[in-house]
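MODEL INPUT / OUTPUT PAIR
PAIR INDEX: 1
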Amino acid sequence: MFEKLSTSWELVKASAAVLRADKELLLFPVISAVLSMLVVVTFVVPAVLAGVFASGVADGAGLPVAGYAGVLLFYVVQYFVIFFCNTALVGAALIRLRGGDPTVADGFRIAASRIQPILGYALIAATVGMVLRAISERSGLLGRLVVGLIGFAWNLATFLVVPVLVVEDVGPIEAIQRSAGYLKRTWGEQIVGNVGMGLVFGLISLATLAVGVMLIVAAAATESAVLIIFVAACLLLAFVAIALVSSALSGVYAAAVYRYAADGQSD
């Protein structure tokens, strides 16, 4: 267990070093977030204007068949955008971990070369996500706990799918199988590293919120609307920055864990 903790710490340090050396890697989660919002607007706005959701709620019958097909398509496109940008991030991170000097263009070039398996994996992930969500919505507390455990196991088993797609010339199903196989060697590093980073960024977020609330209260005491808006905007930007760093570091960590699982290197 101590060996797992030590290895996890080394992998986190290696990931942080990559992010410090290549701050442009932060562009990948930025692009992912922007594209994801565009996908939401593209799908949700026409559906709302067409009354797809309202009609289902009004008659108590839920969404029509076309509505479920639209939701599945939305999930597939959304997952594709996320996985495509994650593949670009992981590809660039692996170049740095192997001693290279990657660019944003290098990352997207790698992702573009794997566009078909990324789309296939997006379809699989979207289907699994919809099925688990449907079961959860129709289950009691125990059923939701079971679904939650299944979802947790799925996330663990697929944690290294993106790095596998980047490095190994395989399709999405085999990538899932290989990711699950690597889990036998890296389950400790996956859990410890992700939980550890989650706790750190959670504490940073809480501290930022506490400081932000105090600053907003102080600004409110001045009765200056401009100062209040300025402090609130700074707080929002701080949370956005935390989210971007957390997302980028998580992607780099996946690359580092894969490199450790495949090559046995942790630095």
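PAIR INDEX: 2
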Amino acid sequence: MTSLIPWFCFCLGSTTPTPTDGVEGKKCPLGYYCTKGTVKEEPCQPGTYSPSTGLAVCQPCPSGYTCPNTTMISGQPCSPGHYCPPNQWIPKGKTCPSGTYLPREYARFLNECLPCTPGFYCGKPGLSNVTGPCSAGYICEGGDKIPTSTSCPEGYYCESGSVNGTRCPKGTVRRTRGAASVSDCHPCDGGKYCIEDGLTRPTSYCLEGYYCPEQVKTGDPRPTGYECPKGYYCPNGTAQPKGCPPGTYQPNLQQKECLPCPAGSYCLANTSDPLPCPAHHYCKASTSEPTFCPSGTYTNSSETGLDSASKCHPCPSGHYCQLGVVTDTCAGGYLCITGNPLPNPDGSDETIGKPCPIGFYCPAGTIEPKRCPRGLVIATSHAISEANCSTCPAGKICSPGSSVPEDCTIGYYCPYNMTRQKCPLYTYNNATGAESVKDCKPCPAGFFCWYEGEWVKH
């Protein structure tokens, strides 16, 4: 039996099943197919093609190609970013999905689409190349669809296009995700050090004798250039040197504590070299401010370095001393004996000083009370000069050779500048200091006054 090759025959009929004269019929053309007994060729549909004449059926579009139109005689190469299984009719082929790309033609299968290159992202389907680098602060490990897929991990920084990120350098720390550059790695905390790369927290505290400032990338517990200076102390974990408190000092580098200021010196804050205690002062141990010698004592201007109040000298006779110096001479009317703090001592401690006693006068600065000229007396204390000397006052007895008047005795009266007189007969006087005969009273009833200078005992 003879097989029939696809030809088509015109409607007038044909004398042969395979006409070729173009009148009775002809061979089925390229891009078409001709079924048995057809009078007209049929166009090949999208997804198929007819690469030769005389085909009864169209052939499936081959893998790696696409046949998007009718009457195609050959497939078109599958476009980059696409893949084409058999019978493909989409113009470029099926798109490689987001997160993949394909730079070449003729791909046949989905698995030929390449995962997006690490460090890059492929942001839409059908890419022939990657979209671009991963965003700073993120990593793209491969096959990423967006530039911000995975945040940069703690302890790392991730510049644009990072695959794994870079460890933050020694001396820095990064506690949170998303660092975009090395500048996002923060200096180690103040008082601490970061000895390794990629730390999420400081290694430990800086050691005593050193300090680790904030905003400085410290990678060693004993950082060079940050030794604790003189006049300061640095215990473990010091961010800034601590100044020695007043009353202490530190003469050496790299110390964890300060020393008590020595006696005879004083130490201000942050002292490395104690200052000698100045003149007119004394300084006990741990002194931050010199203390004036006690009132009533002094030092010479050349005397420095005293360590106790006992080293200050008693104020000299005839003077008084305040704030560690001989202030001035004692006031007139007073005696400043020794160690006197005031110009007018009240006599509460007569070893120091007292008011000028009755019967004497005391010029300013005198060290001994002075007597009045012979025959003159002073009846009050605090006398300043010879001008205070006078003849014997009424009511007083003035003994020859003495400038100290005494009260007129009982039974007597003492007129001005005269010797004492007895009260007359039949009168009496029971009080001292009588000044005139008028102070002698008549003898009271029940008594008798038979003598001059009488006094009555009640």
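PAIR 2 NOTE: DSSP finds no helices and 44 strands in the chain.
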